[in-house]
Design a protein that fits this description.
Blueprint (H helix, E strand, L loop, with lengths): L6 H11 L2 E6 L5 E4 L15 H22 L4 E2 H14 L10 H7 L6 H5 L4 E2 L2 E2 L1 H14 L4 E3 L6 E2 L7 H15 L6 H29 L1
Antiparallel strand pairs: 1-2, 3-6, 4-5, 6-7
Length: 217
């Protein structure tokens, strides 16, 4: 049975794709409806309900869920799986997209920490950085960091082990986060993110000190 995207991941895709219940031509002149559904069933004047749009999206996602499940050779949390399905749905699952990406190669080599930075390389359209893609990649990177279950084709789903709080772990969290921050242009958004990042790092350090004090007590 194909692994399905989590409700949180599905909500992220809906947010970024947007939904139109009346058929329209996209920038390439292709008749489209719902959350980007295309095909011979989509013609001029076609109208659907919100429920039908949701069902079309689930059907469209099936091949991307299968692709991520087939191509990724290491265990993934639900959040990580959902982030990759969203990414593949946006850039394509083929050789010019997810299947041929450096992201996939590094992930299959066990380099989980490289994924957020690799996601942020896919933010251009027409040779220019697109703020919408920057924001979507950042949202996917955030989803990548979440999730409580680990599973793969060969590993049964089980609760993930809580991470051990160490200085090294704090550095591992800081590295991909800083890569994401670098992709935001200067302005209020960057300042807010930078402040949030500093507060988060300070919190991790505080928790580390408390753990050390408890251990020595």
């Amino acid at each position: 049975m194909t692994r399905r995207i989590s409700p949180e991941g599905l909500a992220l895709i809906k947010q970024w794709e947007g939904c139109k219940l009346t058929a329209y031509k996209d920038v390439a002149g292709v008749w489209t409806i719902g959350y980007g559904s295309t095909g011979p069933h989509v013609t001029a004047g076609l109208k659907i309900s919100q429920e039908e749009a949701d069902q079309l999206l689930l059907a469209d996602l099936d091949r991307f869920e299968r692709a991520v499940e087939r191509l990724v050779k290491v265990p993934l949390t639900d959040g990580q799986f959902a982030a990759l399905v969203s990414f593949a749905f946006n850039v394509g699952e083929g050789a010019k997209g997810f299947a041929g990406s450096t992201l996939l190669k590094k992930l299959n080599a066990g380099d989980y920490a490289a994924v957020p930075k690799e996601l942020m390389k896919w933010v251009n359209a027409g040779g220019k950085k697109v703020s919408g893609l920057v924001n979507r990649r950042a949202a996917e990177a955030g989803l990548w960091a979440k999730g409580s279950f680990v599973s793969s084709n060969t590993v049964e789903a089980k609760p993930a082990k809580p991470p051990v709080l160490t200085i090294d772990n704090a550095v591992k969290v800081a590295t991909p986060a800083s890569a994401i921050l670098q992709n935001f242009t200067s302005g209020p958004a960057q300042i807010i993110l930078a402040v949030a990042f500093v507060i988060g790092a300070a919190f991790l350090l505080w928790k580390f000190v408390l753990k050390q004090q408890e251990a020595s007590a």
